[in-house]
Amino acid sequence: MLVLDIQSGIGVEGYRIEGAPGGQLRITGDSDRGLLYGVGKFLHGARYADREVIPGSWRGVSVPQCSLRGMYLALHQNYYSFVPSRS
Fold first, then answer.
1. DSSP assignment of the chain, as one string?
2. pLDDT in tens, 45-58
3. What is the pLDDT of residues 28-39, one digit of tens each?
4. What's the CA gap between 23 and 19, in Å, rounded?
5. In the structure, what pLDDT confidence band is assigned to residue 7 with cuts at 50, 70 and 90?
6. Rounded to the nearest 10 degrees, how much is the dihedral formed by the CA atoms of 22, 25, 30, 36?
C-alpha cells in the first residue's frame, strides 16, 4: 500500500520515501510540490510488470540545494546529430 502525506519540516520542496509497518511505502512531501517530486521519484525508479508496480529500492530524504529548477534543451546541432549510424 502506498501512503501519501504532507508534513512541513523536511525542507523547501523536499520529500521523504520510507518503508512503513505492514509493508506500506510512505511518500511524504514538505509541500504540495515536495509530494509531487517524491511521487515522481517513486514512479521513475519503479519497474512495471503486467498489472503490477514494483517499487524501486531508493529510500531517503531529498531536498533541493537551491530554488531554481530547470533543464537544458540542446536545440543546436551537435556531434550526435551527425554521427553515422551503425547498421
1. -EEEEE-TTS-TT-EEEEEEGGGEEEEEESSHHHHHHHHHHHHHH-EEETTEEE--S--EEE--SSS--------S--HHHHPPP--
2. 999 999 999 999 99
3. 999 999 999 999
4. 7
5. very high
6. -150
